Amino acid sequence: MTDRDYAIKSMKEITFQMANHAQNYLEVTIERHYTDIKELMTSYQKLILENQVVLEELDMECQEKINEDMAYALSYLSIYNNQLNVPKMHREMNNLMIIYGLSDMIYRGMTLVKFYAPNGVMLSEILHSCFCSHYNKTDVEVQQELGIGRTSFYKMKKQALGYLGFYFYEIVVPQAKDKRFKPSLGVEEE
Question: Which superkingdom, per the lineage (predicted)?
Answer without folding.
Answer: Bacteria
